[in-house]
Task: structure prediction
Amino acid sequence: MDKLVLLPGPVMVHEDVLLRSAKQVMNHRSEEFEEILSECIELAKYLFQTDGNVAVITGSGTAGMEAAIYSLVEPDEPVVSVVNGKFGARFADIAERRGADVHRVEFEWGEAADPKAVDEALSETGASVVTVVQSETSTTVLNPVKEIADVCKDHDAYLVVDAVSSLGGVEFRMDEWGVDVCVTGSQKVLGCPPGLALVAVSDEALERMKEVEAGSYYLDLVKYFEYLEEDPMQTPYTPAVNAFYALHEALKKLKEEGLESRWERYKRLQEVVREGIRAMGLDLFVEDDSIASPTVTGVVYPEGVDDREFRGRILRDKYDVVVAGGQDHLAGKIFRIGHMGDVKLRDMITAVTCVGMGMLELGVDVDVGAAVERMAEVVAGS
Result:
């Protein structure tokens, strides 16, 4: 039996997207591939809400993060990195590997970033680049990117955003907010197999990149944009052709649904999960709805519940539901339910119900009936 995969990436992939990726490989220097590449770029601009520049890199979201830093930042340059989880720390680590003078603005895991702290850090350091994660997957927190972008404008600093687990499922308006660089991945909200990173760059940030000696050969974003100006439009290196087929199909589906509609759909999925978990009697890792990510929900383990037994023997093996554990110091303390990709309300209801049944099996006093009743109320009111 197929598993219900509710990870914060990779995610369930729509059958149309899977079938599209099964098409025979084509010449990546052909006019036929140029048409696919060109449409992917235009559809991605809609995704990012930008009239600027978009490149697609064969690699994971981390490749996109590294491309952004190694193309924009010079060694010894001061960089402010917002860190309130594993991926904020990853951005800081990448900048340090580049040789930047990184100033980490740290918050407790489970708390959202405070724009005032970013403002203070910029005043103290004079940094011209800020990094932040919109949806911090490790903690299920949504950071206030728009407000941080406003702070960056006041300091003439470039804002680089990791929207790997949020773009397409959470409101994000690159040009309107004034974000300079944004990175996402194919295997999250877009509902594609892993393998591609999308990077959007403002005209101003691209001009700066042209002045910087890139620290990477393969991940030099300027090179990608130069090849997009070729006739036919190309990628500088051999792309994962079949992954582009999948991306093309997924982006068309997103455009058909409409960004605002998808944002609202993800909020409904989030509400069903969070209200169901609450009604059952379990604790959410992020209790404040205003800072909770619409794409992934963290649940605190009751005392005595073993992570491997619960997620493995019970959820995965008995109920065919796959969820993620906690990361770093949260390992064994929380589990995370992803609600992105090709998932529906019924999948969220199934997952929460199975969580409750699994907890009962382990002797935890939860009220599955109350959870089902509450989820039904949410669905009826949506």
